[in-house]
Amino acid sequence: MRSVADWLTSLQTDTPQEGFELAITLARKGVAYTQTSAETREKLRPVYADDADSLTMASQVIAIHYQTVAAANNYWK
Amino acid sequence: MRSVADWLTSLQTDTPQEGFELAITLARKGVAYTQTSAETREKLRPVYADDADSLTMASQVIAIHYQTVAAANNYWK
Amino acid sequence: MRSVADWLTSLQTDTPQEGFELAITLARKGVAYTQTSAETREKLRPVYADDADSLTMASQVIAIHYQTVAAANNYWK
Amino acid sequence: MRSVADWLTSLQTDTPQEGFELAITLARKGVAYTQTSAETREKLRPVYADDADSLTMASQVIAIHYQTVAAANNYWK
Amino acid sequence: MRSVADWLTSLQTDTPQEGFELAITLARKGVAYTQTSAETREKLRPVYADDADSLTMASQVIAIHYQTVAAANNYWK
Amino acid sequence: MRSVADWLTSLQTDTPQEGFELAITLARKGVAYTQTSAETREKLRPVYADDADSLTMASQVIAIHYQTVAAANNYWK
Q1: Which of A2, A28, C15, C56 has the greatest number of CB atoms lying within 10 Å of its CB?
Q2: Residue C32, C-beta contacts closer than 8 angstroms, at least 6 positions apart
């Protein structure tokens, strides 16, 4: 695994919404570790951002990560 | 993550049905953070709303979020 | 979220089989909230009901909801 | 939900392997409730049974149900 | 469910790696119960083993089973 | 299961980020056990690394493994 700057030091967030935004970050990082060129990722963005199924798939990855983040925060109870 | 208005302050809901509707909101937010143009999202709606597999995929994202919301509410026991 | 009649007041069921049927209801509701026209949903039914992969995908959404319902019922132990 | 004969009275099984076979039953039931014609399901079988991705998708639904069944049996510890 | 030889007597493994290999076995068994002909499965192998998305899908089924196996082993803590 | 060198001795990591990187390793191993030729895997890389949906699918497998790793580490609380 190539050495990268620290980008994730905790799964704890103050609010459920910040947790959701962390889930989005995690989903994007999963892509970024696989396609390391930011330029290529930027080129692909208009492709999937205008495709309904691609957006649903992206939303699904966020949903899976949100399960993790929510559990890590005891569901912000 | 761009600053947005607060849209999620709690995962707690009064009933299982409200929890289901929150899961739908979460699924849509996952899309909205990825495709930020409401106009584009509106244009895509007729595409996936008339496609059986797209609807099943959308239902799946809701199902994943519903797991989170239901756990957050201790399954409304 | 448009106001709809109450359709889900509890995740508790008497038996594992009733829980499975509740999972099916949840999967269909996920579709119905997205495509609100019952007529359109009815028109799509023959499309996916005769397609093996569509059926597998539908079965998958049921499986995800069944995890939730089963947990809510402590697995009917 | 149409009335059907009882086919699921418990998620408990004696062994992890029987639990796996129950997960397969649950996956198939998810299909059968959606496509109620056994004849149509039989016709679709050769289509997906000879397609690698269809088989992987079917295996995935089994995996999701197996999570439920395994949890219901406390992982047969 | 056709009678088969015992192939799964426990979800317990000595190490996380053996658990991963058990997850692979479970994923393959999910396929084998659906397509019972070993010859057909062998014929399909080159199809999906050379397709990036098919491999990702196969990896996903393993990941789902690994969640089950890891929980069964209390994460080998 | 062919004998391979030890590559996974623990699911414990020091930080959430190392846990994420372990999840990536697990996702890749799921592919590597299925397509054992490193040369073939290398050839497939440009195919999926330039495809938005393939990247999303890869990110999803990472997300599923990350659930496991995070639970194994009690969410690094």
Answers
A1: C56
A2: C38, C41
